[in-house]
Please model this.
Amino acid sequence: MDTNGWTHAEIRRRLALGAWGGVCALLILCVADLPAFADGEPAACDPSAMAEERERMVRRQIQDRGVSHPAVLDAMRQVPRHCFVPADRRAEAYRDHPLPIGLRQTISQPYIVAYMTELLDPKASHRVLEIGTGSGYHAAVVSKVVKEVYTVEILAPLAREAESRLRSLNMDNVHVRVGDGNEGWPEHAPFDSILVTAAAEEIPPALIRQLKPGGRMVVPVGAVQDVQRLTVLTQDAEGSVSIREVLPVRFVPLRKEP
Ligand code: SAH
Model:
């Protein structure tokens, strides 16, 4: 027994079951201080590999922590996360933490990808805007649940790499653009929902304008040196906005300029 009265086996079991999901969520995204791998074509990857690891990830990290949207769980089962991380990190792809993807950016923890997707209240007919393409993984997951995904990335090498990876996996309903996500993607607005995967000090007004009446936005809000608040913004049919904070999180910053 340790001082809390739990055996180490019990502690391990609780961690595995995700009883500490809220605490683990604090680990969501750390800034990776590792060399870039975003230097061209992604390495070849077998999408059918690591199916057991993927299934275990879905059960232990995602379902056991309360994500229950069937299409989201299916998407997490389908998308080969190991194809979205650098080749030398593939063995870690299904672990319960974020990973570096180059250029000091990270792919989010699997649980957070699933939870944020569920918070979007996605429907098969939806068109979704993502800000912060990164590896393309989150866009790929959302693309399995909705009709079209439009995703904006400020770092051109990451955007190009994500696009070629998504093409090679035949995920043709994801559209990638290089640009400043603070401006959204006006040519394709309005969107049923908007997903921001970098921390905004304030919710960009252009994104609120590009949301359909009745739509919702999921966005981490707060200064980068602080723990941020995962926030769900909903807009009613008349255009009034309400805000709910759901989880303390840690994301890389939403940059203000290229
Ligand atoms: N969704 C990604 C992870 C996002 S990490 C995935 O599934 O892998 C956050 C990403 O936001 C980084 O790639 C970063 O370059 C990008 N980013 C930061 N500021 C941005 C901005 N103003 N516009 C668009 N993308 C931005």
Q: What stands out?
A: Residues 51-63 form the longest helix (13 residues). Residues 101, 105-108, 131-132, 134-135, 137-138, 152-155, 158, 180-182, 197-198, 252, 254-255 surround S-adenosyl-L-homocysteine (CB under 6 Å). The chain has one domain: 8-36+54-249.
